[in-house]
C-alpha cells in the first residue's frame, strides 16, 4: 500500500498528455500501485485500498474495468507510441509471436473454452470412474513482443474470442494465427525497417506469411510435420521432415553461441550470474550442429531450411532432437538463423514476468470486458517498468556498476527498485512533517483518514 497518490516515481512523465478525467487517472494509479505492491493474490479490494489516504469502495474498481475498456486500450496504444518515439530505427528489430492461456473457474464466465479432450476413446478392459470432475476452462490471449536493438520490450496483444462469444458480440471469429497476422499489420514500425518475425509451429500459417509479405518483414518458424516439398502436378511430394535422415553427418558444422556476448546480448538481458566466466576462465556457451540448404516447399515457395541439433552428430542423423527451421530470409547464414530463433524464448520469459511478478493470471471476473481492461492495465504496468529502466540507463549520474545492473534488469528487479523508492519517498514525507507543529497536525489528520468513518471519533 501507499500513502500518497503520486508515490510512483515520474508517473506524470510516463502517462501521455491525453484528455482523461481525474477519476480515470485516480483509478488507473490505484491499479498500478496494487499490481506493483501486491503480496499474494490480486483483487479489486486491493486496488480499492491501494492508496491508504483515499480508500474507495471495493465495487468501484470492478465498475471502472467494465466502463473504461476502450479508454484503457487507447491509453496503452499511446504509451507504446511514446516508448518508440525515441528510436533511431537502425539495426535489426525482432517481433516475437505466441499465445498464452489463463485458467479460470466458474461455468458462467464469458468467453471460456476447454483445452482438454472430453471424448472418451474406446479401449479394451478400460474402467471409467464414477466421479465427475469440474470442467477446466480458460481464456486465450495472443501476444506480440517487439524487441529493439537496445533491449527495449514493447508488448502488443489481442484477445481470442470463441465462436459463441463472437456470435453474441456480433463480431467475426478469428483464429490465433489470424490474430497474430493482425498484430503484425498493426506493429508501430516505420516502413523500410529490417524486422524479423519469430514464432512457433502454431504460427506456420498462410495468413502470417501474407502479413509479413505485406509489411516487407522476414519470418522464421519451425517446419510443420505435415509440410511437403514442391513437386510436379502429378508427382509424389515427400515430407520435409524426412530430409533429416537423408543428410550425411559431414554436412553439419559446429557453432558456439555465447549468452552474454554477441550482436543480440542486449535483447537477451541475461543476468550477470549466467554471463559470468566459469572457474576455468571460459565463457558460458551453447553448442549446436547446423546445416542449411535452399528448397522449394509446397504452398510456401523457395525458402531456406536450417537443420540444427544440440546433440553430437553420429553416423546417422536422428529425427528426434533435430530442429528444422524454415525462413524466407535467404540472405542469412545458418548461424544467424539459429541465433535469431534462440531469442524466441524471450516471449516465454515475458509471460513468466507477467504472471509471476505482475499477477496477470490472478483475476476472477465474470464479464470478459473487465478481463480485457485488466490485461490492458497489466501491460501498462509492464510498459511503466520498461520505461523506468530506459530512463535510468539514460541518467548520466549513475556509475558503471549501476548501469550494468540496470542493463540486465528485468521486471522483478525494476519492481523491487520502485518499491524501495516508494518507501524512501514516504519516509522523507514523514520526516519533513515531524519538524513543525503544522506538519504534526497534517500527519495526524492523514492517519485519521486511514481509519474507517465509524472509528475516526476515537482518534
TrEMBL record:
<dbReference type="GO" id="GO:0006313">
    <property type="term" value="P:DNA transposition"/>
</dbReference>
<dbReference type="GO" id="GO:0003677">
    <property type="term" value="F:DNA binding"/>
</dbReference>
<protein>
    <submittedName>
        <fullName>Transposase DDE domain protein</fullName>
    </submittedName>
</protein>
<feature type="domain" description="Transposase IS4-like">
    <location>
        <begin position="90"/>
        <end position="381"/>
    </location>
</feature>
<dbReference type="GO" id="GO:0004803">
    <property type="term" value="F:transposase activity"/>
</dbReference>
<dbReference type="InterPro" id="IPR002559">
    <property type="entry name" value="Transposase_11"/>
</dbReference>
<dbReference type="Pfam" id="PF01609">
    <property type="entry name" value="DDE_Tnp_1"/>
</dbReference>
<dbReference type="InterPro" id="IPR012337">
    <property type="entry name" value="RNaseH-like_sf"/>
</dbReference>
Amino acid at each position: 500500500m501507499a500513502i500518497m497518490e503520486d508515490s510512483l516515481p515520474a508517473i506524470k512523465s510516463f502517462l501521455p498528455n491525453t484528455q482523461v478525467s481525474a477519476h480515470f487517472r485516480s483509478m488507473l494509479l490505484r491499479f498500478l500501485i496494487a499490481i506493483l505492491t501486491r503480496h499474494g493474490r490480486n483483487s479489486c479490494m486491493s486496488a480499492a485500498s491501494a492508496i491508504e489516504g483515499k480508500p474507495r469502495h471495493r465495487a468501484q474498481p470492478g465498475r471502472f474495468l467494465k466502463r473504461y475498456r476502450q479508454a484503457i486500450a487507447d491509453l496503452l496504444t499511446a504509451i507504446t507510441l511514446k516508448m518508440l518515439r525515441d528510436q533511431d530505427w537502425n539495426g535489426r528489430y525482432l517481433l516475437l509471436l505466441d499465445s498464452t492461456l489463463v485458467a479460470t473457474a466458474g461455468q458462467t464466465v464469458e468467453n471460456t473454452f476447454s483445452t482438454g479432450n472430453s471424448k472418451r476413446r474406446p479401449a479394451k478392459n478400460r474402467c471409467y470412474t464414477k466421479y465427475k470432475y469440474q470442467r477446466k476452462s480458460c481464456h486465450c490471449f495472443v501476444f506480440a513482443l517487439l524487441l529493439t536493438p537496445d533491449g527495449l520490450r514493447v508488448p502488443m496483444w489481442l484477445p481470442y474470442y470463441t465462436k459463441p462469444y463472437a456470435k453474441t458480440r456480433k463480431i467475426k471469429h478469428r483464429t490465433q494465427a489470424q490474430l497474430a497476422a493482425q498484430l503484425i499489420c498493426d506493429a508501430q514500425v516505420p516502413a523500410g525497417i529490417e524486422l524479423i518475425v519469430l514464432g512457433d509451429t502454431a504460427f506456420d500459417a498462410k495468413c502470417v506469411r501474407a502479413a509479413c509479405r505485406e509489411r516487407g518483414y522476414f519470418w522464421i518458424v519451425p517446419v510443420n510435420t505435415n509440410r511437403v516439398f514442391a513437386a510436379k502436378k502429378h508427382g509424389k511430394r515427400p515430407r520435409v521432415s524426412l530430409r533429416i535422415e537423408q543428410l550425411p553427418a559431414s554436412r553439419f558444422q559446429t557453432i558456439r553461441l555465447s549468452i552474454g556476448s554477441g550482436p543480440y546480448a542486449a535483447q537477451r538481458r541475461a543476468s550477470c550470474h549466467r554471463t559470468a566466466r566459469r572457474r576455468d576462465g571460459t565463457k558460458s556457451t551453447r553448442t549446436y550442429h547446423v546445416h542449411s540448404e535452399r528448397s522449394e516447399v509446397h504452398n510456401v515457395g523457395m525458402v531456406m531450411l536450417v537443420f540444427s541439433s544440440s546433440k553430437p552428430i553420429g553416423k546417422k542423423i536422428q529425427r528426434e532432437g533435430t530442429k528444422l527451421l524454415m525462413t524466407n530470409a535467404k540472405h542469412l547464414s545458418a548461424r544467424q538463423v539459429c541465433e535469431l530463433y534462440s531469442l524466441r524464448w524471450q516471449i516465454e520469459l515475458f509471460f513468466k514476468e507477467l504472471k509471476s511478478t505482475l499477477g496477470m493470471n490472478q483475476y476472477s471476473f465474470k464479464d470478459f470486458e473487465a478481463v480485457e481492461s485488466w490485461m490492458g492495465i497489466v501491460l501498462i504496468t509492464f510498459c511503466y517498468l520498461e520505461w523506468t529502466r530506459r530512463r535510468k540507463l539514460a541518467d548520466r549520474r549513475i556509475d558503471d556498476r549501476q548501469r550494468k545492473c540496470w542493463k540486465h534488469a528485468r521486471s522483478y528487479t525494476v519492481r523491487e527498485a520502485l518499491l524501495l523508492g516508494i518507501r524512501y519517498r514516504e519516509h522523507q514525507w514523514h520526516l519533513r512533517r515531524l519538524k513543525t507543529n503544522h506538519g504534526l497536525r497534517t500527519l495526524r489528520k492523514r492517519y485519521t483518514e486511514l481509519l474507517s468513518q465509524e472509528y475516526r471519533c476515537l482518534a
